[in-house]
Amino acid sequence: MHKKLKSLSVFFPLYNEESNVIPLVEKALEEIPHLANEYEIILINDGSTDATLKIALEIAEKNERIKVVSQENRGYGGALKTGFYTAKYEWVFYSDGDLQFELGEIQKLIEHTEENDLIIGYRKSRAEGFKRELITWLLKIWNKVFFDFPGFIKDTDCAFKLIKKEVLNKVMPLQSNGGLISTELLLKAYNSGFKFAQVPVTHKKRLYGNSTGDSLAVIKKAVKETVQLLNLFPKRKKFLMLNFAWFVVLLLLFPVALSINYMQNDEYTHYRMVAQFLNLDFTLDPYLGSTTHELVESLIGKIILCRITFLTLLLHCLKFVSVLCLGFFLPG
């Protein structure tokens, strides 16, 4: 016998989904009554310019469990935040209004509610093709580099999540109004010690309307929001600033290092440096050979307390880049 929740709020953010609203609600009314004793279905109209709002209101007039909330266009994150605030029951589920997910699979998430606070779906395969796969992969790297996002989360922006209202009350207010809303939500929940479960879900191609998730405007907004969200995580911001400052110093010293005349026959020293790098040992190893540029050497010695060869400097530049890139593959 399937597990059933005491109460469940379900909401869908909608933007120009006039062709999807009716089949979406029909599918929700087919599935949701079997999942919870008490439930509500909330349609969030995010400033649609088509007939989405009109159709949603007509549907709500016929069923008291359906609620419509309409707002000026605030973006995907803004629509989700409205849904989080409006939802009143113990558990909150949301998905997009484009019918790319099977609502019947909510039951798979409910089975994990006994010991977890957030049950998040991850797409076994994305239906939109390579471009969206690439954006998803880049988002994971972006989140890891800038926010040290937990690496165990498989699909950050999968719009198939079941969350305790208690979690939402804890992590709100949320700042993001765009594509980083899931990053902010999950990172705050993780830092607060809430428990996660992940479940594979089916993803289908959109039948009607157009997706805006991969538009240039959305990507630009995500970059801007990254800077704003870093203010919520001062330790991470400080870490990034220190590493960036060190990288700038290396770049400024790069042309100076090129002018240093080091011993060409000291191959052992450079082989050792390469070996250290390959073993992820980035200890600064000062070059002990002689040089003809005494003035340049003196300047470098005062700045970094040792003489640096071109190879040493190059290895440290590679260190910075590798820490950013390899950090994605390390545990969160």
Sequence of strands across the biggest β-sheet? 3-2-1-4-6-5-7
Taking the sheet with the most strands, its summary is: 7 strands, mixed
Category from helices, strands and their pairing: alpha/beta
Residue stretches low in confidence (pLDDT < 50, at least 5 long) are 260-268, 282-310, 326-332
Fraction of residues in helix? 40-55%
- Quote the beta fraction: 5-15%
> Under the CATH scheme, which architecture of the largest domain would be assigned?
Alpha-Beta Complex
| The first-level CATH class name of the largest domain | Alpha Beta
Cα shape: globular
Fourth-level CATH superfamily of the largest domain: Spore Coat Polysaccharide Biosynthesis Protein SpsA, Chain A
User: What's the domain count?
Assistant: 2
CATH topology of the largest domain: Spore Coat Polysaccharide Biosynthesis Protein SpsA, Chain A
Mean pLDDT: 78
Q: How far is the first residue's CA from the last residue's CA?
A: 36 Å
Q: Tally of extended strands?
A: 7
> Total helix count?
12
Radius of gyration: 26 Å
The string of secondary-structure elements, in order, is EHEHEHEHEHEHHEHHHHH
GO cellular component, one term: plasma membrane
Pfam families: Glycos_transf_2
Domain Glycosyltransferase 2-like: 9-169
GO molecular function: undecaprenyl-phosphate 4-deoxy-4-formamido-L-arabinose transferase activity
